[in-house]
Write a sequence for this structure.
């Protein structure tokens, strides 16, 4: 018997604006890793990341539920699995603290099935993810962002926050990844995900 072949992920349907999105509200604090040479509140319009706007219609800030989640989202695509001290030293962590409840689209649980999707929208080709991001951003319910599973650790949850929520969050730098006592937490993530630390 031939292996089962999965159908491609669907494009956002034309009827999406008239449908209720699978959303939830939260005011929890998120963790973000950023380059120290840049402001920690970076609302990217590069089109290089998973839920960016391909047409630059809006900016997206990425964060995670935990430091481990932020670490693996930042360094997970590195191959071979090595990370240098200089790369870690150049980055810091920040808290993303909501000033009101955020309305997030659930792409980390039942919401996937409700929208006719599966976890590939969080792991496969960026073009499909970005098309869904554009459609969710444009939805009349005006969600603040997307809640999704980290590509390299499905147990971690990540956040793609649309810049319409920029005034609804406070992004505050904490410390460098290699500053004490953060360096101990960073070393834990390096070990947890099997990275080799280079000088």
């Amino acid at each position: 018997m031939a292996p089962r072949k999965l159908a491609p992920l669907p494009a956002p349907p034309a009827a999406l604006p008239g449908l209720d999105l699978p959303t939830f509200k939260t005011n929890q604090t998120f963790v973000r890793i950023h380059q120290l040479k840049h402001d920690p509140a970076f609302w990217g319009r590069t089109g290089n990341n998973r839920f960016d706007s391909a047409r630059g219609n809006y900016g997206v800030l990425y964060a995670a539920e935990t430091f481990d989640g932020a670490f693996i989202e930042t360094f997970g695509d590195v191959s071979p699995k090595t990370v240098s001290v200089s790369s870690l030293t150049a980055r810091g962590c920040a808290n993303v603290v909501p000033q009101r409840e955020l309305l997030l689209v659930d792409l980390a649980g039942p919401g996937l099935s409700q929208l006719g999707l599966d976890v590939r929208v969080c792991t496969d080709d960026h073009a499909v993810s970005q098309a869904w991001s554009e459609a969710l951003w444009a939805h009349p319910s005006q969600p603040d962002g997307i809640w999704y599973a980290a590509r390299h650790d499905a147990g971690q949850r990540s956040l793609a926050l649309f810049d319409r929520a920029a005034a609804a969050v406070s992004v505050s730098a904490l410390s460098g990844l290699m500053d004490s006592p953060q360096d101990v937490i960073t070393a834990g993530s390096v070990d947890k995900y099997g990275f080799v630390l280079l000088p």
About this structure: Strands lie at 23-26, 30-35, 60-64, 82-84, 91-98, 102-107, 145-150, 153-162, 169-176, 196-198.
